[in-house]
Design a protein that fits this description.
Order of helices and strands: HHHHHHHHHHHHH
Largest sheet: none
Strand content: under 5%
Helix content: 55-70%
Radius of gyration: 51 Å
Mean pLDDT: 82
Number of helices: 13
Number of strands: 0
């Protein structure tokens, strides 16, 4: 039997050393790997923490930006809402037809003395604006003026002026008119409207003038108002323009402007007359009436006053009730101020406009 010879001791020792070296190397490698893995994990953990912090910072910045945007938007929205409300308010008023785009500043409560001063200044301004103001009925004597004034009820002075030439050619005196056939008289005055009632008044007042006043028109208010169809307005027109007796003529134009100017709040004509008479000296009454009526017919209309073309707008508490745009307001002006014919066929020599045309032949 063959036996394996034993290795020498030196070889055994070398092999053991080699084996130990291998084991040490493996152990060191293993420790290094473990250490490297721990370091890698720590680095990864740090990176994750850094990323989380960065993410948190980004989120914080985004939230701050969003908050700032929200605040700015809210501010703009509030400003826009306020602007919209501010714009909507005058627009709503304009749509209601009460106030134009531009409104006069609110006035403080006015004392009686201040109102009187303002009223008299308005009169002076109107005197400068209408130095040619006059009664807009054609007449040559007190009887013609009386008849024309009665006919002017519920119609224009122009229509009366176009009608009276034929009428006065047929009956120039109270006696002639009193003797007229009613139907013939009605036919002559038909263009003025309400011709039956007016014919009755003319026949009655003509007979009264003939029978009670010797065919003459009386020069006293107390006598004039006893005539059929004659009230205080008609009487004041006749007294002021045929006799030179001061009087305030309160027609629809005068009453409207007296209220707009703040001279009165009354609707009744006699009360308006009394209120205005307390503001102005008696010597101004007749011409004041003409100026106010002129302004009412040309500028301060009932439905749409031409506020933007009104010379006395700064003195008027009612400024803004009508058109305030100057160019648009100019288009609303009438008669000579609008470049159109006036109401009289035979106006005074100083009248700056065109005479009215006669009635067209039918």
């Amino acid at each position: 039997m063959n036996e394996t010879p034993e290795k020498p001791a030196a070889a055994k020792k070398a092999t053991a050393k080699k084996t130990a070296t291998k084991i040490a190397t493996k152990t060191a490698a293993k420790k290094t790997a473990v250490k490297k893995t721990a370091a890698t994990k720590a680095a990864a953990k740090k990176t994750a923490a850094t990323k989380a912090a960065a993410k948190k910072t980004a989120a914080t910045k985004a939230a701050a930006k969003k908050a700032a945007t929200t605040k700015t938007t809210a501010k703009k929205t509030t400003a826009g809402t306020s602007a919209k409300k501010a714009t909507a308010k005058p627009a709503a008023k304009a749509a209601a037809g009460k106030t134009p785009a531009k409104k006069a500043p609110a006035r403080k409560p006015e004392s009686r003395a201040a109102m009187v001063r303002r009223a008299r200044r308005i009169n002076r301004e109107l005197a400068e604006l209408y130095p040619y103001a006059h009664p807009e009925l054609d007449f040559t004597n007190s009887f013609e003026l009386l008849v024309a004034t009665v006919l002017s009820a519920q119609t224009t002075d122009l229509r009366v002026n176009q009608t009276t030439p034929r009428l006065f050619a047929v009956c120039p005196t109270p006696e002639d008119m009193a003797a007229m056939d009613p139907e013939r008289l009605e036919e002559l005055i038909r263009p003025t409207g309400f011709f039956r009632a007016k014919a009755k008044s003319l026949l009655g007042l003509s007979a009264a003038l003939r029978d009670r006043f010797g065919g003459e028109v009386p020069g006293r208010l107390e006598d004039l108002v006893t005539l059929p169809g004659v009230g205080r307005k008609t009487a004041n027109v006749v007294l002021g323009n045929a006799f030179g007796v001061p009087g305030i003529t309160v027609d629809t134009h005068f009453g409207r402007l007296a209220r707009r100017f703040g001279w009165t709040t009354a609707e009744d004509a006699e009360k308006v007359e009394a209120d205005v008479a307390e503001i102005f000296p008696k010597s101004e009454w007749t011409m004041l009436s003409h100026r106010v009526v002129f302004h009412g017919r040309r500028v301060c209309h009932s439905r749409k006053p031409a506020c933007g073309a009104c010379a006395i707008a700064p003195l008027c508490p009612a400024y803004g009730e009508g058109e305030t745009d100057p160019e648009k307001a100019k288009k609303l002006l009438k008669y000579e101020l609008g470049g159109k014919p006036g109401q009289r066929l035979k106006p005074p020599a100083d009248y700056p406009g065109q005479p009215a045309p006669p009635m067209a032949a039918s």
